[in-house]
């Protein structure tokens, strides 16, 4: 079986959302007004991120230093072991995130993990505010459907997709996956929809689930 793990980042690989740390630090509470609009479905994720990250005017190095030195950025246990496991088994693992690519790559590099395929919001730093955009598999900018676009690409490439995530926005890709590992809001959404999933606390749970899948 040709398997690809599509894994969210914020709240999945990390225990908290890293972008929230940046916004709290460099924007203050103003950004949460837009978060309410996004969570209520009144604006898409692309619009939300353009608005809130556009308020952040710190430079890349300053933001990177904050992320790499904050005690709020905690890696969920077992992630290194999961990447090693997938490598040993020949499974593809891809990070697809609504977060920002600069801090995802910085965190992975800091962990000594530099070989993962990562798709996330592209960033351009400016004293006038950060510019962000989501670029889909076909090279065009996207406002909605970013994660599931990469799920579809993996399926077109012949992979059976296993999804690992925590957020409500992960439900769209989860519906297309052959197996779902869910926590937090995604777990709640799966239960609401009667979508079969395996709850997880850390990535050791995911590895055990994968071993069961391979042996079945």
In short:
The protein contains ten helices and eight strands. It is of the alpha/beta class.
Question: Which geometry do the CA atoms define?
Answer: globular
Average pLDDT metric: 95
What is the CA-CA span between the terminal residues? Answer: 12 Å
| Beta-strand fraction estimate | 15-25%
Return Rg in Å.
17 Å
Encode the helix/strand succession as letters.
EHHHHHEHEEEHEHEHEH
Taken together, the total number of domains comes to: 1
Within CATH, the superfamily carries the name HAD superfamily/HAD-like
What's the CATH class, please? Answer: Alpha Beta
Protein structure class: alpha/beta
Spatial order of the strands in the main sheet? 5-4-3-2-1-6-7-8
Question: Helix coverage percent of residues?
Answer: 40-55%
What is CATH's topology name?
A: Rossmann fold
Summed up, the helix count is 10
Low-confidence stretches: none
Description:
It is built from 10 helices and 8 strands. The protein has 216 residues and is of the alpha/beta class. The chain has an 8-stranded mixed β-sheet, sandwiched between helices. Helix 2 runs antiparallel to helix 3, helix 4 crosses helix 6 and helix 5 (79-89) runs parallel beside helix 10 (203-215). The protein is globular and about 50 Å long. The termini are close together. The model has no long low-confidence stretch (mean pLDDT 95).
Task: Name some characteristics of this structure.
single chain, 10 helices, 216 residues, alpha/beta, Rossmann fold, eight-stranded mixed sheet, globular
């Amino acid at each position: 079986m040709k398997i690809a793990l599509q894994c969210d980042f914020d709240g999945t690989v990390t225990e908290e959302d890293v972008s929230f740390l940046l916004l709290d630090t460099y924007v203050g509470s103003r950004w949460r007004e837009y978060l309410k609009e996004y969570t209520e479905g009144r604006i898409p994720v692309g619009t939300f991120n353009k608005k809130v990250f556009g308020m952040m005017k710190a430079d890349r190095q300053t933001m990177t230093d904050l992320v790499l030195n904050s005690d709020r950025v905690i890696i969920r246990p077992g992630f290194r072991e999961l990447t090693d496991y997938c490598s040993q088994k020949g499974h593809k693992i891809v990070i697809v995130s609504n977060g920002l690519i600069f801090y995802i790559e910085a965190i992975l590099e800091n962990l000594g993990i530099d070989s993962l395929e990562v798709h996330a919001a592209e960033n351009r730093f400016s004293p006038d505010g950060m510019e962000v955009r989501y670029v889909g598999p076909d090279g065009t900018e996207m406002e909605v459907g970013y994660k599931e676009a990469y799920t579809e690409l993996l399926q077109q490439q012949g992979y059976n997709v296993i999804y690992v995530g925590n957020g409500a926005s992960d439900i769209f890709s989860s519906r297309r996956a052959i197996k779902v590992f869910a926590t937090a809001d995604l777990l709640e959404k799966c239960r609401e929809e009667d979508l079969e999933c395996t709850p997880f606390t850390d990535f050791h749970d995911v590895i055990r689930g994968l071993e069961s899948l391979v042996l079945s």
